[in-house]
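Journal club prep, notes for RB
We'll compare a predicted complex against what the paper describes. Inputs for the adenosine-5'-diphosphate case:
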Amino acid sequence: MLKFEQVSKQYSNGYQAVKNMNFEISAGEILVLIGPSGCGKTTTMKMINRLVPHTSGTIFLKGKDITKENPDLLRRNIGYVIQQIGLFPHYTIEDNVGLIPQLKGWDAARKKERVNEMLRLVGLDPAVFAKRYPKQLSGGQQQRVGVARALAADPEIVLMDEPFGALDPITREQLQDELLRLQQELHKTIVFVTHDMEEALKLGDKIAILKDGELVQLDTPDQILSQP
Ligand code: ADP
Ligand code: ADP
């Protein structure tokens, strides 16, 4: 589903943020990228949706080189959830979740049905929340909306960059559990960034450990736990 072949990123100031990265994940897998601040996790993530263009190597999504695709169309097939949520404050919850379906030109009825379905999926009653604005929701509820929005247009892959990092431990655990439940239902391919090993072990099918821009280890949670 997603393959990195010798992928590197050098920023325009000369800094080499990602070095010769190789990995491959199958459809329905969760890959966790973990490592200390500055090791290149966000850069790796943003190269997938081309918010950051890679400098060398090749990134394949479903066998296709992503540089051969229109970036706007590419991004509509890639869900994206970040820590700072990024909901539009002047849009209702309904319009935030319906953003990509809107861009894709879905008709109003299909869009509404989808938005309600997604809100229910993340545990928010549409009758209560659809017409509210983001600031009328708690941090945990907003983050749920972020997840609903990322899934709304049925993307091929979902990128999650420390999505639960700003939440209190209890809400965080709830959302982790919910993500795993969603994953069982929807079988999305997910790339998930965290710097918390406990979270990585809980969520990952595979865990990629990054250090100074290099992928130094790629293993399953079981392999990591059974290391001497
Ligand atoms: P590029 O080098 O890919 O052209 P820019 O230098 O234009 O990227 O920076 C893009 C964004 O990243 C800007 O918002 C900038 O403030 C931020 N940025 C620049 N340098 C750094 C850095 N060393 N660490 C984190 N962010 C940075
Ligand atoms: P992480 O997500 O693991 O914290 P990042 O991918 O954000 O790491 O950053 C990796 C390295 O690249 C850092 O040293 C950061 O300062 C640098 N960096 C990030 N963005 C830019 C940029 N736009 N220009 C130059 N350097 C950057």
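Talking point for the session: The chain is about 35% helix and 25% strand.
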